[in-house]
Amino acid sequence: MTKLQTALFDMQDITYRDFHSRLIPNIEKDRVIGIRTPILRKFAKEYAKTDDAQKFIRELPHYYYEEDNLHMMIITGIKDYDTCVIEIERFLPYIDNWATCDLPVPKCFYRNKEKLLDNVISWIKSDDTYTIRYGIETLMSIYLDDAFESSYPRLVSEVISDEYYVNMMIAWYFATALAKQWEAVIPYIEEKRLPEWVHKKTIQKAVESYRITDEQKKYLRALR
Fold first, then answer.
1. Using CA atoms, how far apart are residues 209 and 41, in angstroms rounded to an integer?
2. CA–CA dist 103, 141 (Å, integer)
C-alpha cells in the first residue's frame, strides 16, 4: 500500500462505503474505500499543493475509486486553462463511473468558453461512455446561459447510445435546458426528436424540477 493509500484509508467510513458502493454498481466494492466527499475534497485541496500530487496524476490507472476522485479534484483545481485541459483529456479515458465523471467542472473552463468549445464537441462525439457524459455535462454546466447557441441541443440530440449513463446525462441536459432555454428546446420534446426512453426521462426530470413552472409541467405531462 502506498503512502497516499494509507492516508486515504485513515479517512475511511465503512458505513458510508457500504451505502455509496451501491450507487456505483459497476465498481467492485473492494475498490471503494468509503470517504465522504467533503472530507476528500478538503484533503485534495492540501494534497494538490505537494510535489507528490504531480507525481500521482501521472500514474494511471489508479486502483481505488477515491484515487480517481482525488485525481479529478486535483486537476479541476488547476488554474491554468491549457494545463487543465491537457490533464482532463489525459484522464478522461480512465474514468469508469458516473460519480467521478460528474465532479464539478473546472472553474478555469468558465473563463475560456470559446477556447473550450472544440474540446467539448470532441468529447461529445467520442465513442467512450464517460467522455461523452463529461462533454454533455460540461455543455450543460457552461453553455446554457449567456453562451447558449441553438446548435448545442441539436449536438446532444444526435448522440445515439445504448449506454444508460450516456442516456441519463442526455435527459439531464434537456431537462436543465428546458428550465433555462424553454423556447429553443421545447420543440425537441413536442416533435419527439429524442429516443423514447430519453424523451420520457427528460420529461420526468423536468417535471421534478423546481425551475419549471406549474403550467410548463402540465404541458410536458401531456407530451409523454
1. 27
2. 11
pLDDT in tens, 166-175: 999 999 999 9
Calculate mean pLDDT across residues 102-106: 97
How many angstroms separate the Cα of 64 from the Cα of each of 33, 34, 48, 100, 202? 7, 10, 18, 12, 33
Taking the CA atoms of 108, 111, 117 and 120 in sequence, report the sign of the dihedral they define. Answer: positive
Q: How many beta carbons lie within 10 A of that of residue 82, not counting itself?
A: 11
pLDDT for the residue numbered 168: 98
Q: Which domains does the chain have, with CATH numbers?
A: 1-97 (no CATH), 116-224 (1.25.40)
- N- to C-terminal Cα distance for the chain? 52
Question: Where do we find the cell 424553454?
Answer: 182
Per-residue model confidence (pLDDT) at position 21: 96
Query: What distance in Å separates the CA atoms of residue 37 and residue 99, rounded to the nearest whole number?
Result: 11
Give me 159's grid cell: 448522440
Instruction: Give dist(CA 134, CA 23) in Å, integer.
Output: 18
Grid cell in block for residue 7: 492516508
Residue 154, pLDDT score: 98
Which alpha helices (DSSP H) does 21-92 contain, by range?
37-47, 51-56, 65-76, 81-91
Residue 163 CA to residue 128 CA, distance in Å, equals 10
What is the C-alpha to C-alpha distance for residues 202 and 81, in angstroms, rounded to an integer? 32
Integer Cα distance of 194 and 197 in angstroms: 8
Residue 118 confidence class, pLDDT cut points 50, 70, 90: very high
